[in-house]
Fold this protein.
Amino acid sequence: MHTEPNAEVILETKDLFAGYIPGVNILNGCNMHVAKGELVGIIGPNGAGKSTLLKAVFGLVGIRSGTVTLGGEDITGLKADKLVTKGVGFVPQSNNVFPSLTIAENLQMGLYQKPKIYDERLQFVTGLFPELSKRLRARAGSLSGGERQMVAMSRALMMDPSVLLLDEPSAGLSPVRQDETFINVSEINRAGVSVLIVEQNARRCLQICDRGYVLDQGKDAYTGRGRELMNDPKVIELYLGTLAADQEKADRKSADPTAAVPPGAAGPAPQVAARAVPPSAPDQR
């Protein structure tokens, strides 16, 4: 969604320092803002602090200094449940649906603070994603990765957020499902929701974004219009080439999980549920 230069700022971070371990910062003075109606992308190399930025905004990572504001109100350090009531939605990269519950029950979980507006918000999300209305009784655990992402985003939208935070929604999906996910993100934004998206698929992200930020070592190294960043020689040389190679490897793995297994080696280990931020291995993306 195109925004005017002087559009109202919905979400902003100023000089943000944050991290998981005392004395070790992942974010080192990060500045970023999202205007009303904007779709803003965050890209950068692994370990740059992309996911940490979203988690710091959403109260999941300790902020050492700096501020986070929502519509001009200081929300620095508020807990996730308070942020949801104030209009911040968050979709983590993994473990973002309740697999044993139906789609309808997942959506209801998104409204546990405001159950009376369920019918109204259900109409909104099924208007965005009509296929949901046909499968409300299906178990989330029976869905494909792309369908799960759609349910996860829909659940976050049930509380009518003013800004939606998306942590690598295309991760682990096949190229076709990735395209569907980026289309869904664009549809959400066109419906009037401001979006801040972290993505490893840098080129595809910049194609749909109004503006983008390149994070490096916990700081905003570059910023500009999405298409401008995609064609910036310095950004291409320093970041997009490496990120494209990483994405190509990820796409091959998604298409054929056994491709990287050498002959005679054991197949891929079964996936197990993990906490979003393991204390013994902090996520520094």
